[in-house]
Amino acid sequence: MDEVKITVRDFDFYYGTNKVLHAISLDIPKNRVTALIGPSGCGKSTFLRSINRMNDIIPGIRVDGKILVDDVDVYGSGIDVVSLRRRVGMVFQKSNPFPKSIYENVAYGLRINGLRDKRKLDEAVSRSLDRAALLDEVKDRLNASALALSGGQQQRLCIARALAVDPDVLLMDEPASALDPIATQKIEELVFDLKKNYTIVIVTHNMQQAARVSDRTAFFMLGKLVEYDDTRTIFMNPSVKLTEDYITGRFG
Amino acid sequence: MPIIKTSEDRALRLGTGAFAVFVVLLVAGIGVVLTQQSVLSIRKFGLAFWTRSTWNPVSGEFGALPFIWGTLYSSLIALLIAAPIALGIAIFINEISPLKLRQPLSYLTELLAAIPSIVYGLWGIFVLVPIVRKLELLAPEWLKKVPLFTGPPLGVGMLSAGVILAVMVVPLTSSVAREILRGVPMTQREAALALGATRWEAIRIALGYGRTGIIGAVMLGLGRALGETMAVTMVIGNNPQVSTSLFAPQYTMAAVIANEFTEAADELYLHALIEIGLVLFLITIVVNALSRILTRRVVRA
């Protein structure tokens, strides 16, 4: 078994009185891609956003149980959410670059961290763009507006922006769902590449995508974790009938 | 939806269209009438009317500069005071306050806008002016040498006018700024937070995203301040002079028209007052047009 990066134990999540996650327990391995699949409303995105506490901004939420990143409870007392999010980066479903230049988008996370040194910033920006496989396409126009990029490029820019603050974990919430097949393929190749250095958790609606990019797959339904196993096992030989029904497209 | 050309639909189109056209004609008509009615003054003084600073009805010498100055200066002071307060209110209501408080708070700030101008004026005379006078009396000698603070401590004057205008402008500016902030996609704030931004840094991202709209909100406030008449007339001191001092009693375009219109006995005097109305009309139209363009750009983006 691989080294465990994120440990989840009996995690419950409530919106007001509405319980949307029920006793989730799983171990997410380090430097692997873990896919979260399941029908709409199954709680997979809520779960993903619980890992870096992005749900905190929604009023009236409550959690129970534990999520440990590197053995530290992210909901424990004395946890600094700001520094947690610097270690656990996130890429969203819809690309959301700031209305700034390409350079400033990538540099943003470093600047709010207090980095002022122009040379270090330059270096970090081009390294992050390179890791996100975008550098060659934009290196001559770093000062152009990020909004002038294509959808796929914008999403890779958002990945570069997340990588710039040097997280260990990257959470991806359907990062390719709004992209065309070619842009999607680029993102998938990128995810595959990135797992050498990062622990990746990816939510996807696209089962082929889960099968292509992930090492482990968790199947969620109605707020419960139905099955969690190696991706190959989940897709070839699932042990729960519900998983098989979903994967073969009998519902969803 | 299929287009059905019944006579009813045609009547609807003509009817509503006529109302719309009527509003446009009304604005144009006001401009035309103001120009016609001020023709004597326009002929006599020409463009110099904008830059002359004498206002002497007895000798028939008229210039609009003290009034233009007073209007712009008092509005600028109002803006400097109101913009940060209005933005603070908008940020608090939209980004920080608990959901339950949002409605009542928005309602209360907008209630300020419903208070009649004359009531603000009375409050200005009985409460604000005495306070301002006390503050002016406290000013140390060295401070009175600064051009902003010269002159006797009268209480009535530019500072009181600026403050009262600020209070009147806050509701409009804060409610427009609130709408702009609400239009900023949540994903912008999330992007910042996910990078380890603090709450304030995420709010700054939202402000940056809506910055042209925020500027538009401030400009709308400016438009309101420029035309405000009653309350300002009651506290500004009504003395046509161009002074940088906040303590000095001055005058605004709207105030001089309100005060002197009924006493304008000869034609030229009347025409000069109406030309001031024309100048005010042009300045407010330009300011409002600019603010509309700016706010629309964000709402679309």
Question: What would you note in describing this structure?
Answer:
The complex is a heterodimer of chains A (252) and B (301). By secondary structure, chain A is an alpha/beta fold. Chain A has a single domain (4-247), classed as P-loop containing nucleotide triphosphate hydrolases (Rossmann fold, 3-Layer(aba) Sandwich). Chain A has helices at 44-51, 81-87, 102-112, 118-131, 135-138, 151-164, 181-194, 207-213, 231-236, 241-247; strands spanning 4-15, 18-29, 33-37, 61-69, 72-73, 88-91, 169-173, 199-203, 216-221, 224-230. The longest helix of chain A has 14 residues, at 118-131. The longest helix of chain B is centred in the C-terminal third of the chain and has 34 residues, at 267-300. The model of chain B has no long low-confidence stretch (mean pLDDT 91). With 301 residues, chain B is an all-alpha fold. Chain B has a single domain, classed as MetI-like (MetI-like fold). Chain B is built from 12 helices and 2 strands, in the order ααββαααααααααα. At the A-B interface, helix 2, helix 3 and helix 6 of A face helix 7 and helix 8 of B.
